[in-house]
Design brief:
The protein is of the alpha/beta class and 250 residues long. It is 31% helix and 14% strand. The protein has one domain: Rossmann fold (3-Layer(aba) Sandwich), CATH 3.40.50. β4 and β5 form a beta hairpin. The protein binds 2-acetamido-2-deoxy-beta-D-glucopyranose (NAG) (3 copies). The site of one 2-acetamido-2-deoxy-beta-D-glucopyranose has 4 residues, from α6.
Length: 250
Amino acid sequence: MKTAAVAPFFFLPSTLATTIYLAGDSTMANLGGGSGTNGWGQYVAQYVSATVVNDAVAGRSARSYTREGRFENIAEVVTSGDYVVIEFGHNDGGSLSTDNGRTDCSGTGAEVCYSVYDGVNETVLTFPAYLENASKLFTAKGANVIISSQTPDNPWETGTFSYTPTRFVGYAELAAEVAGVGYVDHGAYVAAIYETLGNATVNSFYQIDHTHTSPAGAEVVAEAFFKAVVCTGASLNNVLTTTSFEGTCL
Ligand SMILES: *[C@@H]1O[C@H](CO)[C@@H](O)[C@H](O)[C@H]1NC(C)=O
Ligand SMILES: *[C@@H]1O[C@H](CO)[C@@H](O)[C@H](O)[C@H]1NC(C)=O
Ligand SMILES: *[C@@H]1O[C@H](CO)[C@@H](O)[C@H](O)[C@H]1NC(C)=O
């Protein structure tokens, strides 16, 4: 006669075992870019059944985030099934002739530049190359990567709505395509919602400059990200606690 095996106890993985890592600049960082401003990463947790780790740091570009080992730090802790959202662009422009340590090599492919920064002759990559390189690190760990386009500067700054995506928006899309990871045009969704909200409301979000928003602005920017996720069908859909966000799909 067979003895019935004692069923072992299993701990069912909770959805909160999923972690979303956020890699970006001040527009995403907790406490944003200065007094009275918040980054949108601060408002992500309320929409997801996942742990949110906001690793965005003010002043960073795709290049400086790479050089400082910040993508590597995330890669060390990310596990299969986690998400990494990468959003840069605000600090990636400028000229290498007066190198601030953030400017990328111009171009969209495998071009390299050399620049002596901080006493080191640094090999500088293009913006898409940094994002592709980072994406590879994470997908190798089984993580889901979403490259997100940068937020717009205040498109109502002049009193008339005007949104022109920077070149880094197109570069972000290209990087996602080349790396074979998800892409959301966050910038376009923020702009669309801002257009609806109008001049007075949107200008009230920008009290210190045209890049960093108030907490109320950051909440709208976070909602726009999830609207883009829902409309794009990005993998992050799986951990959303709601799919109802204001605005229309673009
Ligand atoms: C690629 O990314 C890794 C991790 O961020 C970094 O250590 C490495 O330097 C990057 N490669 C280049 C050429 O920048
Ligand atoms: C930096 O390294 C590159 C590639 O080896 C080289 O061509 C360039 O001359 C170096 N620049 C300086 C200032 O040493
Ligand atoms: C837009 O909003 C700003 C700030 O509230 C205000 O000063 C300006 O007069 C408004 N412009 C228009 C065209 O309504």
